[in-house]
């Protein structure tokens, strides 16, 4: 192990031992501070994130900083995470929450502020210390966040080393960090996720997004289009839960596309133009890093396409879906693919086929008022989240309007080679001891009853 990583982990362990002496109230004060600092400094942190990462939208990053900080803290406050956290007198079980130790967190350039914040809140809520290994295009953000936190930690009399940052991260150093800590959160590309699962430590990773958007017959098409466009264009499309496709009923297809166009979409159904655009967005079948998180105008200019002023999103209509078609993949920019279907089962199958290309385990966006249709899609699709009549990019990660855990790490289950098929929460960074008593009024059933 390098001297740098050894020193960081040793410092972190010493700080964590002090953190473990605090009661629930003081621990929660620290967690609240992590959120409030980002909320109060949302604009300068958003500006730094936009400049350093060179992707996304400044105003959307402000929204993200404020939204995630308020939502996550609201979900954490008042919840027990230390000592006795639950009693079931009838079952004879007492649950005791205990820390894991030191958490290693690899964080992405797409969310260089809110992901370190979220991970730190979950870790410290359970009295773990945390060491952040930022993406190279997120180092300045991580350090700025650390400086803001250290001022508050000093004021609170709390050791700074409960929140540390690898200041010059490399793949090798991040790999070393993961192996040296007690648990790992890996948010980013599949390389860092695979490294986390190879670390020999309990790890939580994410899978690629490719959210399929299904529009049911009879839904309010104007409202559905608005939600799906907002989902797709937020932060220039770098959010993994952003809606990637429009799967619309054939009989109302033209009406639905007209709604999208009226709300800022530029629609392309010319196969030659679509093929030319594919060479720019997916050269050699792989997403072009120079289009990721860029504006519609930038992408259109790269492709030699003229789009109207104020265009929010480019919508293409591929001739096919599923395997062998690049438009079936995740498009990390303001672009969507559109398909038509004759029956709801066909709509679900289109989504299913595209998910098998990329995005298994992540999320689906359904715009429908038909409960049977929604449930049939939920049963068929290999996703961890089905978000109904919402703006998926901002709500799949938890929102005040739904009951998904607010988070920045969206687990994709075994479909996405992840340990969890739900939103990461503080409870995932907690060890539990269970004190088991003899159950009240217990009696063993007869063999006849057992095997009846």
Task: Offer a few descriptive terms.
452 residues; alpha/beta; Aldehyde Dehydrogenase, Chain A, domain 2; 2 domains; five-stranded parallel sheet; 16 helices; globular
Distance between the termini: 58 Å
Quick one: overall form?
A: globular
CATH class type of the largest domain: Alpha Beta
- Please tell me the total number of domains: 2
* CATH-defined superfamily of the largest domain: Aldehyde Dehydrogenase, Chain A, domain 1
Q: What is the percent of helical residues?
A: 40-55%
* SS-based class: alpha/beta
Query: Mean pLDDT score, rounded?
Result: 96
Strand content: 15-25%
| Named CATH architecture of the largest domain | 3-Layer(aba) Sandwich
How are the strands of the biggest sheet laid out side by side?
5-4-3-6-7
Rg calculated over all Cα atoms = 23 Å
Low confidence ranges: none
Indicate the multimeric state.
single chain
Question: Number of helical runs?
Answer: 16
How would a textbook summarize the main sheet?
A: 5 strands, parallel
- For the secondary structure, the number of strands is 15
CATH overall fold name of the largest domain: Aldehyde Dehydrogenase, Chain A, domain 1
Pfam family, one: Aldedh
GO molecular function: oxidoreductase activity, acting on the aldehyde or oxo group of donors, NAD or NADP as acceptor
InterPro entries: Ald_DH/histidinol_DH (IPR016161), Ald_DH_C (IPR016163), Ald_DH_N (IPR016162), Aldehyde_DH_dom (IPR015590)
Protein name: Succinate-semialdehyde dehydrogenase
């Amino acid at each position: 192990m390098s001297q740098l990583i050894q020193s960081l982990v040793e410092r972190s362990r010493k700080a964590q031992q002090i953190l473990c002496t605090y009661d629930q109230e003081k621990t929660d004060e620290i967690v609240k501070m992590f959120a409030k600092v980002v909320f109060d400094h949302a604009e300068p942190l958003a500006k730094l994130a936009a400049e350093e990462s060179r992707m996304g939208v400044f105003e959307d990053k402000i929204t993200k900083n404020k939204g995630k900080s308020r939502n996550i803290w609201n979900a954490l406050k008042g919840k027990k995470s230390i000592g006795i956290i639950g009693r079931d007198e009838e079952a004879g079980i007492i649950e005791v929450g205990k820390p894991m130790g030191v958490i290693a967190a690899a964080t992405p350039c797409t969310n260089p502020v809110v992901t370190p914040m979220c991970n730190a809140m979950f870790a410290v809520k359970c009295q773990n210390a945390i060491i952040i290994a930022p993406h190279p295009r997120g180092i300045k953000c991580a350090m700025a966040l650390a400086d803001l936190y250290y001022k508050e930690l000093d004021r609170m009399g709390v050791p700074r080393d409960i929140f540390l940052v690898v200041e010059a991260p490399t793949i090798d150093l991040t790999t070393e960090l993961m192996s040296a800590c007690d648990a790992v959160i890996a948010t980013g590309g599949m390389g860092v996720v695979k490294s986390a699962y190879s670390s020999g430590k309990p790890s939580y990773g994410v899978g690629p997004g490719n959210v399929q958007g299904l529009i049911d017959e009879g839904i309010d098409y104007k409202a559905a289009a608005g939600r799906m466009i907002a989902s797709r264009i937020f932060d220039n499309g770098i959010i993994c839960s952003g809606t990637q496709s429009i799967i619309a009923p054939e009989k109302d297809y033209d009406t639905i596309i007209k709604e999208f166009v009226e709300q800022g979409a530029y629609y392309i159904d010319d196969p030659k133009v679509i093929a030319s655009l594919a060479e720019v967005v997916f050269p050699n079948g792989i997403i072009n890093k120079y289009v990721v998180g860029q504006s519609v105008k930038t992408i259109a200019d790269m492709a030699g396409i003229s789009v109207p002023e104020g265009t929010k999103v480019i919508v293409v209509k591929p001739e096919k879906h599923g395997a062998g078609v690049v438009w079936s993949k995740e498009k990390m920019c303001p672009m969507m693919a559109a398909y038509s279907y004759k029956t709801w089962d066909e709509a679900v199958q289109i989504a299913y086929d595209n998910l098998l290309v990329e995005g298994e385990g992540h999320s689906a966006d359904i715009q429908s008022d038909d409960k049977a249709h929604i449930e049939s899609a939920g049963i068929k699709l290999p996703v961890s989240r089905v978000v109904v009549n919402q703006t998926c990019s901002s709500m799949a990660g938890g929102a005040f309007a739904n009951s998904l855990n607010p988070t920045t790490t969206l687990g994709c289950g075994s479909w996405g080679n992840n340990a969890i098929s739900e939103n990461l929460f503080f409870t995932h960074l907690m060890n539990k001891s269970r004190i088991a008593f003899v159950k009240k009024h217990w009696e063993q059933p007869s063999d006849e009853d057992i095997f009846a």
